[in-house]
Every structure is written in C-alpha cells, then in structure tokens.
Amino acid sequence: MILDGKCPTGPIETSWDRHRFEMKLVNPANKRKFKVLVVGTGLAGGAAAATLGELGYNVEAFCYQDSARRAHSIAAQGGINAAKNYPNDGDSIYRLFYDTIKGGDFRAREADVWRLAQVSNNIIDQCVAQGVPFARDYAGYLDNRSFGGAQVSRTFYARGQTGQQLLLGAYQALCRQVQAGSVKLHTRREMLDLVVVDGEAKGITCRNLVTGQIESYWGDAVVLCTGGYVNVFYLSTNAMGCSVTAAWRSAKKGAYFANPCYTQIHPTCIPQSGDHQSKLTLMSESLRNDGRCWVPKKQGDERAAHQIPEDERDYYLERKYPSFGNLAPRDIASRAAKEQCDDNRGVGPGKRGVFLDFADSIKRLGEDKIRERYGNLFDMYEKITDENGYKQPMRIYPAPHYSMGGLWVDYNCMSNVPGLFVLGEANFSVHGANRLGASALMQGLADGYFVIPNTIANYLARITPGKVKDDHPEFKRSREEIQGQMDKLLSIKGKKTVSELNRELGKVMWNNAGMARSEQSLKEAIKRIPELREEFWNNVNVTGVSGSTNQQLENAWRLADFLEFAELFVKDALHREESCGGHFRVEHQTEDGEAMRDDENFCYVGAWEFKGIDKEPELHKEPLKFENVELAVRSYK
Amino acid sequence: MNLTLYVWRQKGPKEKGSLERYEAKHVSPDSSFLEMLDEVNEDLIKSGKDPIVFDHDCREGICGMCSQMINGIAHGPDTEITVCQLHMRKFKDGDSIYIEPWRAKAFPLISDLMVDRSAFDRIIESYGYTSAHTGGVPDGNAIPVSKVNADIAMDAAACIGCGACVAACPNASAMLFVSAKVSHLGVLPQGEVEAARRVKAMVSQMDAEGFGNCTNHYECEAACPKGIKVTFISRMNRELLKAIPQVEKKAAGGGF
Asked: Is A266-401 a domain of CATH 3.40.50.1970?
C-alpha cells in the first residue's frame, strides 16, 4: 500500500499556517467533554498534557516513574536548537530546515521539518516565560553555542542540564494543570495495551506498578509520548525503564512501525568498563566544541596519552572533515571512531575508545572557562572512570542513544489508527535517518506545545465525545489478555534470569545490527532472535507474584516485547539496501567509507504492518518528495 | 572485592521490616553501587528468593529516582553524588554496608528500599511554577535577566527532587527542596510576579504534608547530590516574611 502523509501542498513557507487555518476547531465549551489520554510525561508528553489541559480538555496523563519529573528527557545535556539568529551569524528558519533535512540524510518529510523549524522559536520564548534558566551573557541576553551538523550557533542551553531544565518547565506547567483540575496524573503506571474499538483508539490498559492491578482507562484520543527503543541493544544511554512496550503493543493493534532500523549511535559516551555494566553514560556532544578527537597514528600503541608526541597523533575528524572537523554529525563521528578502533588504534582498556582532548582549549581559554562550560560533565566523567579530564584526555566510544524510527504518523501526528497520536521520539517523523544534536528536545516540545494542541482538534471535532467508555467489552478482554500474559511469565520458572537473556539479545543486536550492518550479519540476527524468544518463553525465571510490586516482572514483559520488535528492526535493516544516516550497510559505501544512499529505490518511509508473531510483516511505503531541498550527497568535508 | 550487606527488607507498608544479611562476592571496584545490587539480586533470583526492590531509572545521576541510605548517609559516602553514580571503589574489600530506605513520615514506604515521594509533586502542584500559558509570551530576549540572577536561578533549579535532603535531616524537613524552587522562580523576572503567592502556597503545602522544620543542622546541604546550598532556605524565609502581609493585604481588598 502507498501511504499518504497528508502533508499540505503549495509554498512550504506558509504550509503550517495554511494547514492550521484549514483544520477544524473544537469550541471552548465543548473541549471539556473530550477526554484525552497522554502516555509518558517527558518533553513531548509533559508539554502535550499541560497544553491540552490549559486549552480545557479533560486530560489523564500516565508515567511509569514515581513522578512525572523523572522521564528520560531529563538526561539530555547539551541544548535545544532554534532559528532565532540572535548571534547574527546567518541563521534562519530556512537554514534550520535545510540543516535538519540534510542532517537526516534526506529521509524525512519536508513539511514536518519545516514546521519544526518554524515553531522552534516559539519554544524558546515559552521556556523563558516558564522560568527555564538558560545561559545568558552579561547584558542579560540569551547565549548560544554550536552543535554538530551546523555551521551557525543556534543551540540554547542551561549548563549541561538543558533537558532537565526544559523538562522541569513542562513538568511545572503540568503540575499547574493538575492543581487546576484539568489534568489527572497517574504515576507508576505502565501502558500494556491499546484498546481499539471499531478501528479507532479508545483507551489503554495499564498495570499499576505498586499494586499489580491491571487497570482500564478510556479516552476519546490516545497520545503516545513513550520515547525510543534503543534499549533493544541492552547497553545504551537510555534509562533502565525505557522500552518499546507501549509503541510495540500499539503496533500489534494495527499501528504501522516506520523505519525501525534508523537508530542513532552517539559518539561521545564513556567506554564500557566490564560485564557488570548496566548502562552507558553519554556526555554531551557540546564537548566537541572544545575537545579534539584523536588516536595514536601507530597501531596498538600502548603509551599513555601524554607520552605520545603531537606528530604521532591523528586528529582523524579534522583530517577527514576539514570544514566541520570535530563537529561532524553524530553518525559520521561515531563511524569514524569505530573505524579507528577496528584498525587497532583504539585506546584504553579493551581498546574500544578514542581520546577527546581539551588540552588546547584549556591553554587557549583557561581551565576555569572550560569548567564553567562543561564542569558537570567533567565531574561525571571522573565519578565513573576515576580519571581527571582536565589533566588527561577523556576516553570516549559510541553508544546507542536515540531512535529516529518509530510509529508512523501523518502530518497531524496521527498514526494510521484514527485517534492514536504519537509524539516525540516515539514517532518517526522529523529526523530522517540521523538526528542532529539539540534537535530531540526541539521536537519533543514542538510536538507537545505547538503541534498536537492544533491537530488533535481536527480529529476530535469529527467524533462524539465519550461514545465508548471502559464498560465496553473490549476493555475487559484486554485486561484478561494482559493478566494472562503476566500469569504466563510467572509460571515458566525456568533457569535463566531476565537480565541474562536481555544481555544476550543486546549482544546479538549490537554485533549484527549496530553501527555496521551486512546482509550476512542481519541474517544471522534473524536466525538468533526467534531462538532467543523461544528460550525466553520456555526458560525464563520471573520471581514473585503479579498482585504486588514486582520489578522482575516489569523487566520480563519489556524484554518479551523487545524480542518481538528486534526481529522487525532487523528485517527493516535487511530490506533497506542502502546506507543512510545511522543505517550503515557495509555493502553500500563509497571508496573512502562514506554512506551511499540509493535515492532511486529507497527514497521512501518504510512502514511495517504487524501480521502476527512468526509471520512476515507487510511493508507499506510512503514516497518522500524533495521540492525545496535538492537531493544531494551529504558532505561535511 | 567481597562485601557483607545488611539490607532493609519490608514487603509492604503495613508489614514488619528487618535488616537482612547478604554476601556480595567478586564485586568489581569499577561497578556502580546499583550494579553491585543487580548482581546480588541475580543471586537471589537464582536461589528462588525475591530480589531487593529499589527505585532507579536513568543511572546517570539526573532523574532523582534512586534513593538509599548507605551506612546512614543519604546516597552514600561521596560528595555531590546519587546512589547510581556511586562506584564501588569508594569501599574496601571486606566492608559491611548497611542499606536502608529514605525514612520520613511524609515519604511512606512502599516496599524494601522504595518509598512514596508524591508529597514533593503536591508541593510543586501547589505553586511551583509560573502561570505562563502556552503561546502569547514575549520574545525570549524581550526581558533581559542579569547573568548573576540567571546563575543563581540555575544553581537552585539543579534540584533533582530525590529527597535526600529530607532523608538526611533529623527533622525530615523539606525546606531545602521547597526553597530551591521558591528561589529558582523568585529570582527571575518571569517568576517574581507571583513570588509572594508562590512562597505562601508552597510552604503551607509543605507543612500539610507533614515535613518537619529547619533547625539549622545543614545535613541537607551535605547530602544534596546537586550541591544546593542552605542559603536558599534563608532566602525563602525572607520571601515568606515579605509575603505574608502582602497576601493578607490583597485578601482585604488592597493591591500590591
């Protein structure tokens, strides 16, 4: 089937404004009759719930954490982009749009990206009004810094805690609505099913993570803001609770999953130290503003960094990409680091690491200036590695960080299941095959504050509020099915723990579908994943009972979903016979190792329809048209 | 390294709890404290016992979910750190480690090391925000904010809401948490407009939740993983003193 994103046509500069005028509205007095369920309280979910509440809708919001303030958006460090052009360095909405399309390796929709660039400026204004303490200069004006993939300074930041500050802004706006009575908050709840009645999303089934109760919630629309799925690699920069569960269970209820193979491996993470490790820690890409990446020129060099003279160091990013240098986009910087390590030039224990050296910047600006810019990152580095980044170069290595793929949505952020909206990282829309730094925060807040409040009305205005409630038999059926899954997981009583199997899946995915993918490696993964799935359902040991707090059971169902989703991920990677952005197929590269796209055959969004476990998913294509940016080879040289 | 752990186990809020002894063997000094507990839990699962319940999520010291008293110190023996960032190299081979939940009346226990901190959410709900509606706000540069004030606001806004300040305080006072939010917003021109109403609402909610008062022990500052200073408490007290007559004047029909 050919999918239609229903993007506005005509001049792109006015596309969003025209579309907003053309959409239906819900009259203020009628808004309170509609109930909207918002799942997830990160930047997208927190902003959406707060804004929909302000508008007068009757909102219920859900998060698995103990407080809405803890969603993983909080961990974003570096910043948020906007096309304000405060530094007067040539930025514009058009340039942000252009950089994002190019950064995404021409695999995103033009109209969606234009809208993102357009509302980026409103986001900064909104956050300032909420009291987000962005960095400022001595005149009292907002400060900017540079990020990868851009040659202008358009990134706004709050020390190294930008995500935290933006999330607290959204959380506080959400709390204001809780106080006002327009939003009801359900914490420690995890969505385990989407309830679809007559083809439309009408509610969700959750587990209360404290009591173990399986609960039903009805709504006239469901807004999923449940983040990404890179924990499929087991070790990633995501929080421990991040999972594909809400998105995958919606996919099993009919929502298409788009471009699952587009995952971002972030270049500046702290290398793994041993098998005990449960997660990888990222350090902001902004470090590459002042840090220089290098490896020894000599293979297998065992000397400490300070013993290696200047002319025996290879500043490989500056050498390969002279115009962007250390600020090359993430996919390129990550692959370059992997290349050096594969070539036996890696540093540190295990030799999976490259240096990120601040010595030159400290000489130029002084240690105090560097501390002011990145102090918390240096502290964090020292706490984890016991090394002082001011005195010796940091060691970094790429780690899974973000998923550009996600549930398919149209221009209104609505999935192919009417009434199911998907925002932020959980959808596939604006980042194409690679996300630029400081763009995730921008997208989450754009979707939540400025897109969904407009587009949801266009759907709600066409339906009758409260037509289906939780007394509908479909809710009971869903509850029974979920309870059945819990009972099944607890009854297996096998020999392996959830985390042992989780690590095995992670290894299969990282080795075969990580930074470099080949037909052979992907086929190996397609063979291994169903075997692991079978082992899981026959040999996992989940302790405890379903009727109380049970963290092992939570981990078990998240893994069960990853074990199904991983197969789709790999199939998508196998079908996409090209390299683009974060998806690198070794068969498709230029002579000097750069990604080679195939626009003739793959210039489309690949959206997969679930047909049953052990059945082939069906591929639907949405062709991508580039009318404003010319399809070109992406070069950062 | 090998360690002996004494961990607080309590099935539910109404059940009796006790310290249970566990052996943690072959712990890597490079592993984090929670990774050490993960390994202990793996052993418990394999021997058919219920693993230790504890809150955790981001494991990079920012979400504020992890919350454990380690040898009587909130977040354990290191400065400006959360449990998830604490590494085992801070301990010695053969050490005994006592692990307990946050203990405060306003943080009722859920299970083992997991407590209910929703009182913090209710305090923010009471007025921990600016009443800016989405849209219709001026350009971000329309109102300059002095760098000094922006920096003070950021120092206060760094709070992660973990509750270590309450757990460390002999009075289980939440004044560091509340004063951080009162100061963060009160020092900025965007938040100053509502400063008087805010401080009054937040302090009364804090009292209603059953937190104690500050008697200047400064244990909160010592335990805070984000280095938030007790000077914010004095700032909040000043703001509250200024606010009371203002709010009352308004109630009597006067303006301010």
From this structure: no
